[in-house]
Amino acid sequence: MNRLTVDLRPGEYALARLPADAEPPVLPVGDSLVSVTRTPEEISVVCPAAVAPAGAKVDDGWRLLTVRGPLEFTLTGIMAALAGTLAAAGVPIFAVSTFDTDHILVKEVDLGRAVAALREAGHDVHS
C-alpha cells in the first residue's frame, strides 16, 4: 500500500442510532462530516457530538481521521490497510466511505495509539 495522507479533524464526533421508521435528521454540516444512512433496520448517524439527534441512542467520544482525496475508485486496499493497521494496534474503528474518500472514527482514548500505529505503518498523519 502506498503512503496515505490522513488528516485528524477537530472536534468530538458521535455515532447515533434511530429507529428505521424515524424521520431522518437534518443536521448542520459546516466544516464537519455528517453521514445519515438508512437500512431496513435503522438509521445510523455520524455527526459532531454537539448536534447528535435528540431521542437517538448515542455513543460519543469519537475522533475523525480522513484520508486526503479524492481517491479513484480503481484504488484497492485503502480501507483494508488502515483498518488492518489499527486492528493490529488494538484500536476499534467505525468506518465511513464517501464518493471522494474514506473516513475512520476512533475513540478519543485510542487516538494516540491510532496515530502512532498509522505513522509507524508509513502514513502521514496531520492534525
TrEMBL record:
The keyword Transmembrane applies. Coiled coil: none annotated. Keywords: Membrane, Transmembrane, Transmembrane helix. Residues 11-49 form the A9CJY8-like N-terminal domain. Gene3D superfamilies: VC0802-like (3.30.2130.10). The keyword Transmembrane applies. InterPro entries: A9CJY8-like_N, ACT-like_dom_sf, CASTOR_ACT_dom, CASTOR_mTORC1, UCP008459. SUPFAM superfamilies: ACT-like. Residues 58-120 form the CASTOR ACT domain. The chain crosses the membrane at residues 73-95. PANTHER family: CASTOR ACT DOMAIN-CONTAINING PROTEIN (PTHR31131:SF6), CHROMOSOME 1, WHOLE GENOME SHOTGUN SEQUENCE (PTHR31131). This is Uncharacterized protein. It comes from Actinocrispum wychmicini.
